Amino acid sequence: MRALLSLMLLTISLQGCQITDSDAPEADMNTLIPPITKPDFATEIKPIFQARCQPCHFQGGKVYDKMPFDKAETITRLGTKLFTRIKDEKEQRLIREFLDQP
Ligand code: HEC
């Protein structure tokens, strides 16, 4: 009985697949799954820190010599330590994508 039930479920779900496959044009699939590209430091990562970590971690700030946030190396060096200060989920995701990719 249980085998029959799972066979039925399998058939239903397979049909479901076929329906969505034939209904979805390829262009739609591409927009649903954006390509993962490394976020750009200057235009996507730096502005996060510029908005939140001024003046200390920027030119003239008291920790600029030790931890300049206008340099990509500082961000990769500090890595997830930054998340003790950056709590916003979207910002964390961007930074994580930046850190994860060579
Ligand atoms: C008011 C000044 C100030 C601001 C604003 C500031 N910091 Fe800092 N930050 C410091 C100082 C001072 C230290 C300690 C430096 C040392 O180790 O001597 C520090 C150290 C750090 C460290 C290394 C120490 C650790 O926790 O492991 C990180 C990472 C860091 N800051 C991230 C940030 C981030 C991210 C922001 C913005 C969201 C930020 N900071 C904003 C002053 C500041």
How do the helices and strands line up, and which of them pair or pack?
Layout (H helix, E strand, L loop, with lengths): L1 H22 L2 H7 L8 H12 L19 H7 L10 H12 L2
Helix pairs in contact: 3-5
Bound molecules: heme C.
The site of heme C has 14 residues, from loops.
Give an account of the 3D structure.
The protein is mainly α and 102 residues long. The protein folds into 2 domains: 2-32; 41-100, no CATH class. The protein contains 5 helices and no strands. It has helices spanning 2-23, 26-32, 41-52, 72-78, 89-100. α3 (41-52) crosses α5. The longest helix is centred in the first third of the chain and has 22 residues, at 2-23. It starts with a helix and ends with a helix. The model has no long low-confidence stretch (mean pLDDT 83). Bound molecules: heme C (HEC).
Describe this protein with a few key phrases.
102 residues, mainly alpha, 0% strand
Number of strands: 0
Largest sheet: none
- The whole-angstrom Rg is 23 Å
| Count of folded domains | 2
Beta-strand residue fraction: under 5%
* CA-CA gap between termini: 52 Å
Pattern of helices and strands? HHHHH
Low-confidence blocks of residues? none
Name the bound molecules. heme C
Structural class: mainly alpha
